[in-house]
Amino acid sequence: MPPEKARASTEVVHALIRADLLAGVHQPGEKLKFSPLCERYGASVSVIREALTHLAGEGLVIAEPRIGFRVRDVSLQDLKDLTATRIDIESLALRYAIERGDVEWESRVVAAHHRLERTPMVSADDPARIAEDWESAHGCFHATLLDGCGSPRLLDIARGLRDAAEFYRRWSQTRDPDRDVAGEHKGILEATLARDTDAAEARLRAHYARTVEILEPALRDKR
Amino acid sequence: MPPEKARASTEVVHALIRADLLAGVHQPGEKLKFSPLCERYGASVSVIREALTHLAGEGLVIAEPRIGFRVRDVSLQDLKDLTATRIDIESLALRYAIERGDVEWESRVVAAHHRLERTPMVSADDPARIAEDWESAHGCFHATLLDGCGSPRLLDIARGLRDAAEFYRRWSQTRDPDRDVAGEHKGILEATLARDTDAAEARLRAHYARTVEILEPALRDKR
DNA sequence: TCATGGAAAATATTCGAATATTCTCAGATC
DNA sequence: GATCTGAGAATATTCGAATATTTTCCATGA
Fold it and tell me: Is A125 helix (H, G, I), strand (E, B) or coil?
């Protein structure tokens, strides 16, 4: 339930809808009608419209002129393409980061990893669901890793792909209990700090390939 | 001067403003105020606002909440980053295209190149300005080249970067009279058809590096 | 049974005005 | 002289109603 805001700016509504999309409140492919959204977020059509246009730019919703907006659909095919693209882009950025990153960047990576390592993956009250804090620390670790590459354009592309991947990840909350995610992160960190480009890239690649493997069964029926 | 449209849908206005931005009607960094835009495009604030929000998603304008919108600024630093990123992304896509592209794709590349070759670079009436037809054929050739890669996500990223580059290219209409652009395109085409990945990538890389060299002097004063 | 047409309902789009915010600049204060 | 203040102007944002479009669904005819 979104908090009742007396004043609803488009930014706030954009963030609320975005959070709801990632949380799975609106199903993939579902039509997003104005009247219900206005009621839910306590805003007029104008601000809903602007928020949706913004989200369409981010690729989370699809704008269909004169028909309306719908939640972006998911498919196994798209997940594979997304993951492959993400691996290529992040490998590129990580290589540059390892090549160009300074000590200040290194420290931020170590800090982000430490935070991730010390954040419990599941919350105490709902062990079936991945904790919000962990999701945040996880995203932050991967973003910081690439941060040293020095290319705003490349980082922007990587951020967009991460958002899209998060959409999939949150939508299907399945996970492999045998998987040593912490170990994978540690491996990436160590290879990066050792400035071992090939090893770091291989580990990053394996990390994401694992994720798609886990999500695959949940998408089997979606084509 | 934009054609007087009795009915102004946001799509039409979006396309008009976009064309004007690429044509340099609105200067980089300039504030885009609603009243003048409403008058110029014959639309109400709502449709102008939606068009600008859309353009902000494409990165051509910058949205500053509660302050308004402005044309994205240009800088030498950004041009260099953009070009480097574009080279990396397009190299990646071209490699995949050469690896995976079928005969149908090959034919489209040949066709696009033929069209580009037979389109005059400058129009008869204004030899100082690059012809609209040529710009279009040029963009189409480069897009088709990557088309065979089979990754919608990667193609989407490449398209965004091409748009950004076009913004720079059109803004500064300088060009090098000694440059053999047609030869460069032919070289890329031949290496691609020969499925010589390394040669094709090297030629694509050189092609874009040349472009930044030519644009550089015009941006010297912009930092 | 299936296709077609065309009201009626549902819905998206657009508008212009009402409101809120930011900017400008003259005057006051230190 | 420099900085603050606040009224007024300029501007962006938000609203709800008016308009246009799409969808639904039932009647009609092949």
Answer: coil
pLDDT (0 to 100) of residue A129: 79
Asked whether strand D has any atom less than 7 Å from the CB of B46, the reply is yes
SS3 A107: helix
Same domain? For A137 and A37 the reply is no
Mean pLDDT of all residues in B112-135: 89
* pLDDT level of residue B173 (50, 70, 90 thresholds): low
Residue A172 CA and nucleotide D19 C1' are separated, in Å, by 42
What's the confidence (pLDDT) of residue A173? 66
Tokens of A4: 């009742």
> What confidence score (pLDDT) does residue A8 get?
57
Residue type, A74: V
Same domain, A84 and A43: no
Q: Quick check: B88 and A58 CB within 8 A?
A: no
pLDDT in tens, A166-215: 888 876 666 677 789 999 999 999 999 999 999 999 999 999 998 888 88
Band of pLDDT at residue A43, cut at 50, 70 and 90:
very high
Do residue B167 and residue B86 come from a single domain? Answer: yes
Structure-token pair, residue A141:
């670790």
Burial class (CB in 10 A: 0-12, 13-18, 19+), B103: exposed
Select from A24, A45, A71 the last residue of a domain.
Answer: A71
Q: CA of B53 to nearest chain A CA: how many angstroms apart? A: 6
* Cβ–Cβ contact B65 with A under 8 A: yes
B39 alpha carbon, distance to own chain's centre: 27
Same domain, A88 and A183: yes
Q: What is the CATH number of the domain that holds A168?
A: 1.20.120.530
Helices (H), B2-151: 10-23, 34-41, 45-58, 76-100, 103-118, 132-147
Write the CATH number for A67: 1.10.10.10
Amino acid at B69: F
Q: Hey, which residues does B68 pair with through a beta bridge?
A: B64
Number of domains chain B is built from: 2
